[in-house]
Amino acid sequence: MTVRLEQMSSEEFQQYLSFAIKHFADEQIKSGNWEPQEAISKATQEYEKLLPKGQNTENNNLFTIRDGSKEVGMIWLAQITNEKGFIYGINIWEGNQDKGYGKQAMQEIEVLAKKIGLKSIGLHVFAHNKIARGLYEKLGYIEKNIKMEKTL
């Protein structure tokens, strides 16, 4: 397995955006943050704010993760400041999970981040996503804030 990151094509970006909006809405519903009837609208607004020029939004790098010629996922790194980056999304497509692609993609994005001068990378992970949390901890990411809530 040889993982490499390639800039997304326009077609890949449109496919990713459709997936990402629905996925983000679903995760917000699952987390109890949004009501189902408002989730798609809120998720769409969030993506329009983060990527006003789509894949050509300045300081945002959207990559297709490939193993050879096979597309296995995507990763999105934004440069927030000269020294700080933020991973807004990493997704390994169904059928490709649990094969090490996520770990390798994260390692590749760190190489790229260093090349552009970043000193740190942040990311958000939903609390219920235990697999991703475990991966990030193994890669050296540490929790900076924890938001807790109790439903009454």
Automatic annotation (TrEMBL):
<dbReference type="InterPro" id="IPR000182">
    <property type="entry name" value="GNAT_dom"/>
</dbReference>
<feature type="domain" description="N-acetyltransferase">
    <location>
        <begin position="3"/>
        <end position="152"/>
    </location>
</feature>
<protein>
    <submittedName>
        <fullName>GNAT family N-acetyltransferase</fullName>
    </submittedName>
</protein>
<dbReference type="InterPro" id="IPR016181">
    <property type="entry name" value="Acyl_CoA_acyltransferase"/>
</dbReference>
<dbReference type="Pfam" id="PF00583">
    <property type="entry name" value="Acetyltransf_1"/>
</dbReference>
<dbReference type="InterPro" id="IPR052829">
    <property type="entry name" value="N-acetyltransferase_domain"/>
</dbReference>
